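Collaborator request, handled under Task 6.
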Amino acid sequence: MKTAVGILSDAVRPLVLFPEGVVSRTNDRLNNLMEGTAFIAHTAAKQRAAATPAGQMVVHPIAIRYLFRGDLGAALTPVLEEIEARFSWRPPSGCRLRERINRVAKRCSASRSWNISTGRRPGEVPERLDRLINCLLQPLEKEWLKGEGDGDVVARVKKLRMPSCPNCLAAKLTRPNAPAAGVNWPISTSPSSSPVIRRTTSARGPHPSGSWKPSSALKKT
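Structure tokens returned to the collaborator:
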């Protein structure tokens, strides 16, 4: 942050910031902006004003929006066919592209929810994803934050990083060396009772219903 303020106050070269602070797949919706962007701009403006001679800082808001100008059906159909084959589905006849995408999304979210022990419950994809996210984050929030988190997913994860990263840097949390294929790989090593999510592999590749499984479900694979 000091480097960013220095670049702006020196005014030798421009500084490009992405204020959302996270990579997002949304194209038509702006996510919440991080507070650090305003802090950097305000601090640099004060330093420019106090300089001799006094100067100003200019901010140029820019939005980037992506458009796909190719054949959407030709690009997505092979991907959908591959996913459907993993679920042992026959290619649907007369099914629109949007319907196929929603069908695959529901199946994938249901598989992930089942594998992470949220159980099979009714609901649309957004509702299922919310349950899945809470199942993953709430145990860690209760352990590290002594309560349930609030805000969007990005804000909740960043709050978790603040208390957990110092422990990682201090080697209080350890991560074993990456094992060979067929060996369980823990990707979350909480110091006490939070569920440990593991990635399971086999000689045939990842599990067709989803690669991520809780330790309690390993015996089922």
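The cover message to the collaborator said: "Confidence is low (pLDDT under 50) at residues 178-221. Residues 125-144 form the longest helix (20 residues). Please let us know whether this matches your experimental observations."
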